[in-house]
Design brief:
This protein has 19 helices and 22 strands. It has 540 residues and is an alpha+beta fold. The strands form 5 sheets. Strands 2, 9, 10, 11, 12, 13, 14, 15, 16, 17 and 18 form an 11-stranded mixed beta sheet that branches. The protein has a 4-stranded antiparallel beta sheet with strand order 5-6-8-7, covered by helices on one side. The chain has a 3-stranded antiparallel beta sheet with strand order 1-20-21. A hairpin with a 3-residue loop joins β9 and β10. The radius of gyration is 23 Å and the shape is globular.
Length: 540
Amino acid sequence: MKKVLALVLASAMILSVTACGSKPAETKAAAEAAQTEAASTAAVIENQVATKEVATAAEGETLNYKKNIVIAHHQAPVSRGPQDTNTGMQKLLGFMIFDSLLRFDPETKTLVGRLAEDYSQENNGLIWTFHLKKGIKFQNGEELTADDCVFTFERAKELGKNTSAWVDCIEKIETPDDYTVIYTLNKSNMDFAFQMTNYSASIINREACEADPENGIGIGTGGWMIDEFVANDYVSFKRFDNSWVWEAEGVNPTETMTIKYMADQNARMLGVQAGDLDIGCIANNAEFYNYQAQEGLAPVVAASWSCDYIGMNANCEYFKDENVRKAVAYAINKDEALEIINNGFGLTCKSMWCPDTIGYKENFEENYEYNLEKAKEYLAKSAYPNGFSCKLTTISSYSLYAETVQAQLAAIGIDCQVDLTDSPGMGEGGKNGTFEMYIWNTTMSPYGDNLRKLITSDGASNYAHFANEKIDQLMSDAAAEGDEAKRAELYEQVQDELNADCYLVPMFFGYLSNLTRDNVEGYQFTSEGYYMYNVRAVEK
């Protein structure tokens, strides 16, 4: 990690700590800790959120706010609903329109109720009961009831995509009354409550969807309702004044909001600089440095749970050989790759678990730190001592990433032909097993079962198609274990198995960064996405 990054992240930490009303001593301590590279690395991963809270007017002062906020994102809106696709843009929209039963608070690191008043579990997470808050209205005027929770599940199961993390484990749902929902799972899962924070588990309204399947999926309980939706272009919103959110948190003075697709990052940043945009999402974090000291701008960064990794298909003849996989792992210079790809903006890692995740393990019997000689030794022991040619697949925006990996593997005689596709192509090719080697990413969470989809034999995102019965059993045992210390031990064993198998080579965790005008407030950028529903801008 670059030395200058420590100073950038120190600024981000000060923003978050100061905005939350911490004492000056705490702010000073946070800044001092972030001045050194090692301390900042630990602190930033701990600090998973960048928040700018709403300003308070001084005595005798009146704050005037802009009526409309404009946000530009690097991904296009493709659906009104929360279940149909899984992109950063859709999460941004989803957190504005909808609510889930619970939400993970990244500052307190606890689950808090959104649509649920409270919840409980029985039999080590086999049965979960949620009591809904009463009087919550959807944007069509209908009151939220337990039946809407049932409908949300039924639709998600019918779609069969983007929702498997929470849908596949549900055996049945019971609704003893209008405000009680009981989920019985097909096996114990102590992480189920966290899975219900997923934006794809946001509750939708049965009546709206059945009356108008195309537009009804865009009816939620959140603070903003869709005014105009133009696929692959923009979404405009108007404030939903009857939302429970405003009653609970105070009404946002912003009246309308537009979130638009702008593919070109330079155009987004110029738009913020010119004042045409209030917020621009930064896709290429390497450019974050360019906006630090410019007047009127406020760059914001938050640590991410998203882990980039290299995968090797267990059904590809070359990668059936353990020595080949370990040769690849040792040949990858993660620090060099991070510097080239992202200007050092990120945190290299040895595990898919992020430091916030239960059971995180930092060191292994083999850490696969860059060692070209050891890489050559492993390849010499393999069935392919003279190297081989294979295809390396990733998305187009990762082209420099792929070229960097290609050059590093060429040093030991592995010739990678770069194959670029788009996000849907990654999903299709991964599930069909057509990749030989690939570069992709996954989002972790504080709860270990989240990675089940990627590392178990039948995991929907196991694009490497490897099977390890011990991992399958350990993941099931951990999900059913009520003792957190024992669960942590089980997850450590999972990481040991993953490390030994070496089908996946963890690369680094990135950061979420955005450029805002310095008068923008009320936002929260977290590891799971952007919470913009309360964003506003003071008129200057």
